[in-house]
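Many introductory courses stop at the sequence. We go one step further.
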Amino acid sequence: MLALLLMVSAVAHAQDPRAPLVDRLTEVHNLTPEQAAAVSKILGGSNLMGDGLPGITVHVMTTAQCTERRKAAGAVDRDPTFEAICKRPYMAPLYDPASQKPTDATACIDQYEFPDIPCDYPWVWVKAAEAAQLCSAMGKRLCDAHEWEGGCEGRLTAPDYRFDLARGQSESPAVRAMRSAHNAVHGKAKTHAYGGADYRSGVCAAASFKSERCDGGDPKRCGSNTYPTGAFPDCVSPLGVYDQHGNAAEHMNLPLAPDQMSSQGSQKLGVTEMKGSWFIFDTYKAHEDWCRWRAPYWHGTPVMSSHSHANYHLGFRCCADVPQ
């Protein structure tokens, strides 16, 4: 087993200078050789995916500075209660504290943006399809939108997708109808992961900057100038999920029908949903950013489309069912 793992690593290093990213995943998340090979293959299929393009990206905080900030704040990296429930490192149980205990959770969500390792930089330039494939390669799945929202607000509620409004419509009209109905209900009680209805500057990883001459999506001009994940210990939800405001925006699955819900075991999946905000929001608030806000159908495609969107500030995180 060890010999096979070393062989996979050696081949990956020879093929792609980003192979240390896979090594880090393998070490922290205890990937099998087969899982590591699958992640390497997905990473190798993109010229952009990773934690920032060399020569363009300017990270505004080092990983060492992140570690010191977390230590000074008393942040807990590995919660033994969470691991006992989720059976994986760096995942948080999804439940409703008003009526449930953590042990009642049937699903967990990554505490940090992928690669789900505190003080590592988030992976960006990831298409929605690649995000779903990477989650699957690690034995997880792309979260449904309501799971991400529940992790942010601090209570997982029942899915409220208005499938009735989507029925019989093509993607864009269906998303518009469902989004309008959802936001009308939840906009009456906006909240953020750190609490309160109002956006608060300085709390989350949102004081970075766009690269000079960045026009919105040119990889030659736009650096992924992110922070290490978890570098802002107060930017955490009541359920223990970090960076759902700021740092990287995140791909999620928006089902348009019941058989597209990853939380119900579907492999089909729905359309792309961008969740959260990104690393310049303290100076340029481009859109709403409260936990249950659902975005317009920006760059919309089915999740598994080969043409699904990627960008310099767009990453993802995964969910997983609790092992029975």
